[in-house]
Amino acid sequence: MVAATAALGLGGCGTGGSDRSGGSVLEPASSAAEEVADLGWVMFIAAAVVSAGVFALLAWGLVRRRRSAEESDRRAERWIIAGGVVLPVVVLTPVAALGIAALDEPAESAVRVEVVAHQYWWEYRYLDSGFTTANELHIPVDQPVELTLRSDDVIHSLWVPELGGKTDLIPGHTNTMTLEARRPGTYQGKCAEYCGLQHAKMLFLVIAEPEGDFEAWVADQRRAAETPTTSRGAALFRQKSCAACHTVRGTEADGRLGPDLTHVASRRTLAAGVLENTPENLRRWIGETWEVKHGITMPPVPLTEQEVDAIAEYLEELE
Ligand code: CUA
Description:
single chain; 319 residues; alpha+beta; 5-stranded mixed beta sheet; elongated
């Protein structure tokens, strides 16, 4: 009972596809998520019926009059067989069948994305288009997208409540998952496996858009960065070791440890879904990295206010 209600309660505070604060498993936007929601309701109702039965029997046992010890033993045996064997079989068999039916079936996908989980951000490699991005997964609506799931460090779990169940990302092992959205929208995704200090701030967005918009986005992402590499911000980006960890395609920056920043200005959030991508937040993220996300791999780099401004101005041009 507790498990069933907890399962339904998880992520149950969102208000749907266009909301960024978190989606609900009870507002499915894909057939996979619908099966999970249906299974959740079946389990909830079954658990409620069983609980009601247990409490009714308890009440009956308390008020009924006593019988002889021998008669009591015989009756107790019947109850144990009925309640301990028959009832679980009748209740658990359909639930198990529904659970198996709700399992992910691989579908033919036109879009394949390799997802690499890092403490505490998401890397997306669009295999067919040859570019890499981070923390914002764009998918075409009404099309199955095949995700290959890997981890760079510890076990993480990818979960978009409105689009389906969770799948773990395990070091040294590759999992797959099919993601599909049947209506356009922005869906909140999260890491669903405790992975360290900033596990709760390992968020991402899934942006499901009509095919034309998706293709336009892909075309934009494939472009190299178009920004003056001679600006003060670009020079600081190289000197202050940002470039050792981050790639900006089309420049000398080709670090692979942190998110690819080639089109960082086009993303809606910063710091893996933690901050809205605004000029103030970008400065805060660069200047007060560990105040925003303590203990992450990106070290707090000592910068003057002018240096933060210059780097932020440079990144803002990376659309
Ligand atoms: Cu990654 Cu929790």
